């Protein structure tokens, strides 16, 4: 449009120039006539000369002005084209970057899928490693296991088995959760198998000491540990022997809920120059229909979805105290629903295991 306007101005300048030339010719003719006696010929000739000069001047100015504006417009046009080329170049670079990101995204997605498949496989291995809860039937038919890993694999695990004349029940909580916790649980589970199934250890204190020594050696004294609750049960004498490394045991007696605290040291952890760790053995003579409970700290440490408070050991004990007379199967549902209600929309922060069983 701007160039069209300039063309029109050029046309006007041309018209002025042509008019000026015409007036100049007419003036020349009239000037010639002034040599002859024509009335007012000089005045008319002067007027034509003035008009001619004016026309030529205006035409020249118009042409100069039009050329300057045209140059300016062309400069703006070139500048605009340069910016368009720059934008096009930037768009090309951006598209190349997007293509690179898309390739990286695809590569990450493939790696994530491979990692997920590996974790799924590890989960299947861990599940096959854990004893079938039906093995509990050799100890008691009235029992439950509430096992809820935070991730697909868990640092918490349980162990059931028979060693000589004892039925053994173990609940363990390894440092961490997820893959790191699961790796430690694999190692701990194999150690338990060596000490119980192979070496036939029947003393809970000796078992905890053996586990402590071996884990410190294998992990070279790193700050990695396991909290464990160990029960050896003699069903003939109706005695249960318990030792706890930072894990308690709850049981009922005469309709009341009792607590056996674990010792304040874990299995494994940093090398210590102090004396040998002290673990305590507790002997419980149980009667008919005695209820026992073991758990990791994942249940009691779970945060509330609204207040952000922990569930806490005291609240768990009160919950068990109110419902321990129910069947173990029903209790499992009660404790699981209570945990779900407490957690609400909050994220699960740790692996959770709660085991209950009836003896006598």
From TrEMBL:
UniProt name for this protein: PPM-type phosphatase domain-containing protein
Keyword tags: Coiled coil, Hydrolase, Membrane, Transmembrane, Transmembrane helix
Record bears the keyword Acetylation: no
Record domain PPM-type phosphatase: where: 138-359
Pfam families: SpoIIE
Source organism, top-level taxon: Bacteria
Record-annotated membrane-spanning stretches: 15-34, 46-64
Keyword Nucleotide-binding assigned: no
Coiled-coil residues: 84-118
């Amino acid at each position: 449009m701007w160039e069209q306007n300039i063309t029109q101005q050029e046309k006007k300048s041309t018209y002025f120039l042509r008019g000026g030339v015409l007036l100049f010719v007419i003036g020349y003719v009239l000037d010639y006539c002034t040599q002859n006696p024509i009335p007012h010929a000089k005045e008319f000739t002067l007027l034509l000369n003035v008009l001619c000069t004016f026309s030529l001047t205006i035409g020249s100015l118009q042409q100069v002005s039009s050329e300057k504006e045209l140059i300016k417009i062309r400069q703006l046009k070139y500048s605009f084209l340069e910016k368009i080329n720059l934008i096009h170049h930037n768009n090309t670079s951006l598209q190349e970057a997007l293509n690179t990101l898309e390739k990286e995204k695809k590569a990450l997605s493939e790696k994530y899928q491979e990692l997920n498949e590996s974790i799924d496989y590890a989960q299947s291995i861990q599940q096959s490693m854990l004893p079938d809860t039906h093995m509990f039937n050799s100890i008691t038919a009235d029992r439950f296991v509430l096992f809820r890993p935070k991730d697909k694999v868990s640092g918490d695990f349980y162990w059931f088995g028979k060693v000589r004349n004892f039925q053994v029940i173990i609940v363990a909580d390894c440092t961490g959760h997820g893959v790191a916790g699961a790796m430690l649980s694999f190692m701990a589970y194999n150690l338990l198998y060596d000490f119980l199934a192979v070496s036939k250890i029947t003393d809970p204190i000796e078992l905890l000491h053996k586990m402590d020594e071996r884990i410190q050696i294998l992990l070279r004294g790193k700050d990695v540990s396991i909290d464990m609750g160990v029960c050896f049960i003699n069903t003939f004498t109706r005695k249960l022997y318990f030792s706890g490394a930072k894990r308690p045991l709850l049981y009922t007696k005469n309709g009341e809920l009792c607590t056996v605290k674990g010792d304040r040291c874990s299995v494994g952890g940093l090398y210590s120059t102090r004396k040998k760790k002290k673990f305590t053995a507790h002997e419980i003579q149980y009667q008919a229909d005695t209820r026992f409970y073991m758990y990791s700290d994942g249940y009691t440490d779970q945060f509330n979805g609204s207040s952000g408070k922990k569930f806490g050991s005291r609240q768990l004990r009160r919950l068990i105290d109110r419902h321990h007379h129910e069947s173990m199967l029903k209790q499992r549902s009660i404790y699981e629903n209570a945990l779900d209600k407490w957690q609400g929309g909050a994220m699960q922060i740790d692996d959770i295991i709660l085991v209950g069983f009836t003896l006598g």
